[in-house]
TrEMBL record:
It comes from Lactobacillus hominis DSM 23910 = CRBIP 24.179. SMART domains: OMPdecase (SM00934). CDD domains: OMP_decarboxylase_like. The active site is at residues 60, 62, 65. Substrate binds at residues 10, 33, 60-69, 123, 185, 194, 214-215. One of its GO terms (molecular function) is orotidine-5'-phosphate decarboxylase activity. Pathway: Pyrimidine metabolism; UMP biosynthesis via de novo pathway; UMP from orotate: step 2/2. GO terms for cellular component: cytosol. It is an enzyme of class 4 (lyase). Belongs to the OMP decarboxylase family. Type 1 subfamily. This is Orotidine 5'-phosphate decarboxylase. It catalyses: orotidine 5'-phosphate + H(+) = UMP + CO2.
Amino acid sequence: MTKPVIVALDVDNQTQLKEILASLAEPSQTTIKIGMELFFNSGANIVKELANQGYHIFLDLKLHDIPNTVYNATKQLAQLGISYTTVHALGGSKMIKAAKEGLIAGTAFNKNVPKLLAVTELTSISDDVLSNEQNCKFSMQKQVLSLAKMAKSAGSDGIVCSPLEVKILRQQLGDDFLYVTPGIRPNHSTSDDQARTATPRQAKEFGASAIVVGRPVTLASDPKSAYEAIKKEFN
Ligand SMILES: O=c1ccn([C@@H]2O[C@H](COP(=O)(O)O)[C@@H](O)[C@H]2O)c(=O)[nH]1
């Protein structure tokens, strides 16, 4: 079975959106990620529209609020036809539990409940930022593992982390949990806002369940070839 290469549709207009979608596989074979940029530009209707076209949707709004607010928000999101959504693990176990309950409450009878993914430490956070700005006393690996364990016990279906942490996480938390990894850079020399990166091949070797790829596809001179090459490397 091929593992998903999830393309992050981080665009603010329909023209660019259509161009990228045209480079990807047919909707039923494709998971696309809608993040804050497209959602705040086009609203919930774009989510419903793309879901109706048959795409599997990863709605990445990274909710982080009090449990009651998150419950009511995920209850709404569950009605959009999405497959995955995200909260920040740092919101705590009560918030994660509420997010899951909201998804269950908002899902129509005989539809699948969207999978809940907890974002551990963003892939843009370096070791330096973790210790000097977040004042975390643990190593990155220990911190991500601790958040992932808590998220799993609170009911999340998986986590978002860097590919660099997946091997140890999978050993500790098992295979009945999703390890979704952004921070994918086919060319390791690229320098941008991502701090904890790996190539698609490394993500595969470390055991990622799915990878999330944005700019390496959307900014490529030939997005279709870039997407196909990443899929081949990851599978
Ligand atoms: O820890 C995280 C969580 C989410 N993301 C999202 O993934 C994509 C990555 O895009 P690139 O252009 O490939 O960097 C983007 O939508 C982020 O919001 C993440 O990067 N790290």
